[in-house]
Specification:
Radius of gyration: 18 Å
Number of helices: 10
Helix content: 40-55%
Shape: globular
Distance between the termini: 46 Å
Number of strands: 7
Order of helices and strands: EEHHHHHHHHHHEEEEE
């Protein structure tokens, strides 16, 4: 179980944001297990030919078989609507030791990493250059022109709905609507992670004036947070309206 502990005033600093970088990284989960994301199959069929011209080898290893991703690839949004290029620049500044530690945490091992990751972590700075270049090309080739505008409209609608729920029904209704496994007690938010693809580490996270950021995604079945619980408080949850992506886009 993951517990977020709120002191007086912490709920007032809770905010919403969405992240194009997060969605780009999380979308790579479809390459591992498209059956978990049926609404994205039409999009996957359209981009398959383009993926052949990208660094597919790197894009694939950014997601572990149980669909975890390194924390440094999905930093907490600095504002409500960040820009992909600015977020990617933040990732490019990741210290090499953090790159290595986050990959080991994602794959839950330091000894049996995928060969490409093991070779990359021999020189994590160079590996960071390669993987950020691969993400940039993936964004420009497969996401930016058609997919992200549709996704962004879903995110905007989700944020508007959540704000209305919070204003009209309060925090308990807000959190319950994000994931039925979330329970708000008045000073704690508890997340029970039963049914996940892999056992998630338990955590006791104190907001402690740092603010909680709530971020919708199209690529999760339930709420989740960072692997490293010491990082600024973040809760990712499934966005409303995901099924609309299976509709044929307007021409």
């Amino acid at each position: 179980m993951i517990e977020f502990r709120f002191a007086v005033g912490d709920l007032a600093t809770t905010s919403f944001a969405y992240s194009p970088l997060q969605e780009a990284v999380f979308s790579l989960r479809c390459l591992h297990d498209s059956a978990r994301y049926p609404h994205h199959r039409p999009w996957l069929r359209r981009i398959r030919p383009r993926l052949e011209h990208l660094d597919h080898e790197v894009l694939t290893v950014l997601v572990a078989p149980w669909l975890w991703v390194p924390d440094f690839l999905t930093p907490r949004p600095a504002r409500a609507r960040p820009v992909f290029a600015q977020e990617l620049d933040e990732v490019r500044r990741t210290p090499p030791e953090v790159v290595a530690a986050d990959f080991r945490a994602t794959y839950r091992t330091a000894d049996t990493l995928p060969p490409l990751v093991a070779r990359g972590l021999a020189d994590p700075a160079a590996f960071l250059v390669r993987l950020t270049g691969a993400l940039d090309a993936y964004w420009r080739t497969c996401l930016a022109d058609a997919w992200w505008p549709r996704t962004q409209s879903i995110m905007e609608a989700d944020l508007a709905h959540r704000a209305r729920v919070l204003a009209e029904q309060g925090a308990a209704a807000l959190f319950a609507g994000l994931d039925p496994r979330l329970v708000w007690t008045g000073d704690q938010l508890r997340l029970h992670r039963e049914g996940d693809t892999a056992p998630w580490p338990s955590a006791d996270i104190r907001i402690a004036g740092r603010g909680m950021v709530l971020v919708p995604t199209l690529f999760a079945r339930g709420a989740q947070t960072m692997i490293d619980a010491s990082r600024p408080p973040l809760l990712v949850y499934p966005a409303r309206g995901r099924a609309t992506l299976s509709e044929t886009p307007p021409r």
